[in-house]
Specification:
By secondary structure, the chain is mostly helical. The chain is built from 9 helices and no strands. α1 packs across α3 and α6 packs parallel to α9.
Length: 240
């Protein structure tokens, strides 16, 4: 008699294989990022030095701070670099149980989810971050000298990249909810006001109460929400 565990064993082995590949990809990308940590750090600090030309260096006050910060930055870069591959491995795990049409849809999901995530991180670094830094550095003056800490600054940058990257997945999640029938057609349009309020609250919390960061995060999320409604409305008839 076949036990439930024996029945699940092939899926367990497949899941284990995919997890190992995901972990290996993140570790390899993290290692490569650590080897180029000086260039990566200089790249991340460039917006700060542009916002405050009077700054020449950052400081750290703990012996382990620089080392730990390099590791955290390398890990973040490793996750960002390997994100499309991680999504692909998730797709490869669930693809065998799907129909041919569902497989084609799944490939589009992987592509657009990766594109939106990378687009969110790019928007964060090249558009939102410089404006936020200019805003905060404007408080510096003869009697108020900024001395940003190395670890805290790069943590702030990393948090912004992940926040914007995940936030840009909103249209993808909306379309998937509509296509799979979890949400009735027109639901997001009817509940627009409530979701706008939720977006504002989440943006405020994710930005740690920083008004400029809240606005810069909320505005593109409003546009993405409307884009999600439009795309879901266009694609929903395909299910009929």
């Amino acid at each position: 008699m076949i036990s439930a565990f024996d029945h699940f064993r092939p899926h367990h082995e497949e899941l284990r294989k995919r997890l190992i590949r995901c972990l290996s990809a993140v570790c390899l990308a993290t290692l490569l990022a650590y080897l180029g940590k000086d260039q990566l750090t200089a790249f991340c600090m460039a917006p700060l030095f542009q916002a405050a030309p009077q700054l020449q260096t950052l400081v750290y006050t703990k012996l382990t701070e620089a080392f730990v910060t390099y590791l955290k930055l390398s890990l973040l870069a490793g996750v960002l670099i390997s994100f499309p591959y991680l999504l692909f491995q998730v797709w490869m795990f669930i693809a065998p149980g799907l129909l041919e049409r569902e497989k084609k849809t799944g490939l589009l999901i992987v592509f657009w989810a990766s594109l939106l995530f990378l687009g969110g991180t790019a928007f964060s670094f090249f558009i939102a971050l410089p404006k936020i830094l200019h805003f905060f550095m404007a408080y510096a003056g003869p009697d108020l000298i900024p001395m940003p800490k190395f670890g805290l600054y790069l943590t702030f940058v990393g948090r912004m990249l992940l926040t914007f990257g995940l936030a840009f997945e909103i249209p993808f999640l909306m379309v998937m909810a509509s296509r799979t029938g979890l949400i009735a057609p027109g639901y997001f349009a009817r509940r627009r006001g409530w979701y706008y309020l939720i977006i504002l609250i989440l943006a405020f919390l994710l930005a740690a109460g920083e008004l400029t960061a809240t606005v810069l995060l909320a505005l593109p999320l409003f546009l993405l929400y409307e884009a999600g409604i439009l795309v879901a409305r266009l694609l929903t008839p395909l299910k009929r």
